[in-house]
Amino acid sequence: MMMAGLRExxxxxxxxxxSEAALRLFDERGYDAVTVxxxxxxxxxxxxxxxxxxxxxxxxxxxxxxEDTAAIVAAxxxxxxxxxxxxxxxxxxxxxxxxxxDVEALLTTIRVISASPALLAGVYQTNMAQRYExxxxxxxxxxxxAATLLxxxxxxxxxxxxxxxxxxxxxxxxxxxxxxxxxxxxxxxxDLLERGFSSIExxxx
Length: 205
What we know:
Distance between the termini: 50 Å
Helix content: over 70%
Largest sheet: none
Strand content: under 5%
């Protein structure tokens, strides 16, 4: 068991080293100008090792901002509503004032994405795919014909909350304060979404 734990820590360290090297290079020279070989060299790993952790170049950046909301819904505890599971997840995200978040790395990631048309397109495609996966999960959870619209509302609300959070950090709002404001906004947003979901359930019962 100790050896397994050590291997996992070494894997996590390697993944973090690759991510840090990639972000540094992308921020300095632009995502499109940096090759995978250069990232591997900067991280001190072989190219094949890099691809073992990040199957494609965009994963070096987008893995940090991808969220599988459909999986969150599917894995919710018995008796918890799908929106309750999402609310709990994003409430946890709002509790970022604990010092565990690397604000500079987070802002660098957003800066790199914003400066790259290729990454912006990747974010859009990822969001579209995840929205439809969320719609399927919500339909299975009882949202019925309104699942696609509800998934769109959830995605739009979360995107708006995240953008506000990133903007506050980028303008110098302390992490603890930005996290507190985000937590309040998460509660308000999901109060509204839960009401809509409850009315849908009532209409289809």
